[in-house]
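User: Second chain of the day. Same drill as before.
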Amino acid sequence: MGSTTVRWITGKQFIGIDSTNHSVVLSTPSEGIGMKPSDLLLVALASCVAVDVVEIIGKKRGELLSLQISAEGKQDQDPPWTFRQIDLHFELSGKGLTEKMVEQAIELAEGKYCSVGATLRATANISTSFNITTVEE
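Assistant: Same format as last time:
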């Protein structure tokens, strides 16, 4: 079971603390000192998928050297600004990575194992794309 605490600091600044006592600073863009809560949702999705992609590629005997995921969300123009489309783009480099391996890893991670993605799919379409840079062995 997940649990978090959000504490108000001042103005529109907050600190979020997770169940393992790690923290992140949150704020509105005008405050300029922390992440926007809606951007944090995109970070949560990308990082949830990332954990599983790394594990799956390792099990498939690929040697992942780098992974970066860019997430772009399109929201409704009116409150509550619901996300309707989220695009995840993966940039991977490594040894022994194939398109099939990466595609399967992303599909399993995003479609089967990521709890954040499973939750968001109720209101948003999630699409994925990737680019592989192969490093010679």
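The mean pLDDT is 95.

User: Great, on to the next one.
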